[in-house]
Each structure stands twice: as C-alpha cells, then as structure tokens.
Target: Methionine ABC transporter ATP-binding protein
Amino acid sequence: MSALLEVAQLRTHFLTRAGVVKAVEGVSFTLERGEILGLVGESGSGKSVTGFSLIGLVDPPGRIVSGSIRFDGQELVGLAPDRMRALRGKRIAMVFQDPAATLNPVLTIGAQMALAVQAHGGGSERAARDLAARTLTRVGIPDAAARLDAYPHEFSGGMRQRVAIATALLHGPELIIADEPTTALDVSIQAQILAEMKQLAKQSGTALIWISHDLATVSSLADRVLVMYAGRIVESGPVASVLRAPLHPYTRGLLDSLPAMARPGEKLNQIPGSTPSLLSLPPGCPFAPRCPRATDICRSDPPVVTQPGRMALCHHPLEMAAA
Model:
C-alpha cells in the first residue's frame, strides 16, 4: 500500500518586487496513515508555508512553482479549485496557530461548526449540531451541547483551541495539519492537547503533521521529525534517533537551546546569528555562516548523508565525525 501523502521536490516561491523568496525549496517526504510527523525549525524556516502548500492555501504573490503533492494517489498540485475545496476540511483539515483569528466572533460555536459540517453535505442543521456536540465532547469540552450556544470570547484560550481541533475532526479527515496550535497556551493545557491529539490519531488512524519550533513538544508527540532551515529539510528520521544523536549541526543547536539543557544560573545556549534572508541566501549550505563546524567546502551545496531511516544535508555530519 502506498503512503497517504507523498511530497516530491516541492518548491513554493513568492514573487516580490525585491526578488524571488524561495520559502520552500525542494522539500520531499512521505507520510503513512496514522503516522505523526513533526516539522520543526526556527521562524522563517518554511514550516508554515509547507503546510499551507499541502492544503492549497498559498495566496499570491506566492505559488507552487514545481514539485508534486500526491494525497492518496491523487495529485494536488494544479488541482481545480472546486476539487481542492471538496478535499479541504473533509479529507484534509488544518488547525491554525491562533484560534481567535480562526473563529468568527459574531457567530456561536454551534453555528460555525454546523456550517463546516453542511459545507460538505452534512445533512440537516440538527444533525450537524449533534455531530458538533459529540466532537466537542471528544476533545474534552464538558457540557458540550450547552456550549454550542456560546460565543468564542466566552471560552478560554485552551478551550478555543480545542474548538478549532474539534472543527478539524468533524468529518473524520485522513490528514490533519496542525500549525503550532499550542504555542500561546500554558504548559498544562499544552500537555493535555498533545495527549489528546496523540490518542485521537491512534484511535482513528488519522495522520498528523505537527508544525512547531519546539523540539521538546515534538519529542513527546511525533513518530518521525523533519528539521527545516531556509526552506529546506536539513535532517529527517525517527524522532528518538534524531534527538539522541543528531546528524546536522543545526539540529544539535536547536537541542542545545532548550532550557532543560542549561544548568540553573547559567545563560541559555543559543545558535549564533539569525536566519538568513531568503532573498539572498549564502552560496552552498545556508547554515554555514552560523555553523561552528563550517569550512571552505561548505560554500558548495551539501551532500545528502544517509543512514537507515535517516537523512541529513551536511558536509560535516556530527555522528559520523564523532565515529
């Protein structure tokens, strides 16, 4: 059986007056049914644009310039807008970072969820409300039937995010793309939502792409991880293997920057410098100006380093150097 999602050499560019911003540059990966894939990297690395590209939400001046996105055997690049809308929300759903921006403040939760159900032929308004109540209960919202008549501002931040997740689950999608949905939440609520998403993926067989800048969050949720930098995947592999023995210096830098890695009273570690402008990337490896292991050879394009189930783009992969 083929993978649920197959992405090959995806390139999404933004054609601006200042030049071409290569936000996603040659991204390739696969996703199996029921698998949870973490997509991590600093702000500006191309994570969110990758997610928006998968679901056809890249607005002008951005566009997919080349590559392939095959979902359950169907090519999505170049798919007619009406056919893409039929997939979006029903078979592929997305949870955005800010639920306050996603939810309409002048409509009740029940009305918004009913509209989402009926947009894909969900039957009567009563049936749509019943489904909405059951789905809210599924994500841990108490007294769900009564809360359908509440407005978004009557929910806490954590509850609004649960509503956004419930809306994504209404049609039992085969794939959910979650774009940093717990960033603004406190740690306890974040942990609850992560546990619920993991359980829901396991129970329903839904595949999940979890976009985050936080490796610690991804480590507790994902099966595999893709590390992005400057629009490229610089490392990929099983999450336990990547976190235990990263191959790419950028992944090592992200791990060392976690607060848990610092001793009390010491300064937190950080990757020197900042992410480069996608309008003027340095030649060769884009991470070279910030990399402690960079040499002259890093001015040329990095080779693909492979191990069983793993990949990295690097002239000086860490584990091999140590060996």
Q: What stands out?
A: The chain is about 30% helix and 25% strand. Residues 187-204 form the longest helix (18 residues).
